[in-house]
Amino acid sequence: MFTGIVEELGEVVAWSDLPDAARITVRGPLVTSDAGAGDSIAVNGVCLTVVEAAAGSFTADVMKETLVRSSLGGLAVGSQVNLERAVRLQDRLGGHLVQGHVDGTGEIVSIEPREHWTVVGVSLPAELARYVVEKGSITLDGVSLTVSAVGHTAFHVSLIPTTLERTTLGRKAVGDAVNLEVDITAKYVEKLLAAGVVPASSPGDL
Asked: What percent helix, strand, coil does the chain show, rounded to 5?
């Protein structure tokens, strides 16, 4: 589990194609300072398991399904990535609960610099549209953000200078792909309602 607060900008330093998978090595001195085999690190919002950590870098295996369902398949040696270690129970929850399980990808459709922030438009896959609401939470490449506006085919987020400087979002251009993870709460509520589960009435409801 993560919070969507990026800790470090990392860099892909090695990439090996495997049958139905890939093995990547990412440089990230901060996130590897206390990492070991079996730990979880989010890479552009995708939860990966550390196979080996040494000399300020970590190696992870990425399954074919992950490469297909996320933008990780478009990475190469030299690519910068957003990195976050798994949350600890005593940590502050600065963003929102993020699983690191990408629901799909979107495309940057607009970038509008303003005086104190930048408004970014992202295409919204039809199968995810029902989970995205104005003022709700969404994760872009592992960054927890608040939806500032939402339409039928796209939504907007507003990025402050700190987010632009400390994450890969400040280096994105129109047409670039981003990983999307919607708020897990919305999916649970949808499933409960579909199953006909309704809250029990309280004495005050009578």
From this structure: 20, 40, 40
